[in-house]
Design brief:
The protein is α+β, with helices and mostly antiparallel strands and about 110 residues long. The protein contains three helices and three strands.
Length: about 110
């Protein structure tokens, strides 16, 4: 993925899981890059031969101003998950209400 966003030393992605009514949980990716570049990232991920289970959907990406870190400089995993849950909570409720499986056709 780093090749898809350039050789920037700053962390631009953090991946976590969020609850999913249908599958138990799903991937969520918080990021600091321009949202217009997400399609490039997804295209690059698609060339890596990863199983579909490990590939986030376009709708699973959440833009944030900065990736949360602790005072030690380590990734703040709780804050990452909280940010993803808060941003995607409305999406999950809408999918359940509509009865549409967002993974159909993938």
């Amino acid at each position: 993925v780093a090749g898809a966003v350039g050789a920037n030393a700053q962390q631009v992605f953090a991946v976590t899981s969020v609850p999913d009514a249908r599958k138990g949980e799903r991937l969520a990716v918080i990021h600091t890059i321009d949202p217009a570049r997400i399609d490039d990232v997804l295209a690059k991920l698609g060339t890596l031969g990863l199983p579909n289970l490990y590939l986030p959907r376009r709708t699973d990406f959440v833009a944030v101003a900065s990736i949360p870190v602790l005072g030690t400089g380590k990734l703040d995993l709780r804050a990452v998950r909280r940010a993803a849950e808060e941003a995607l909570a409305g999406d999950a409720a809408a999918e359940i209400a509509s009865g549409v499986d967002p993974d159909e056709g993938e």
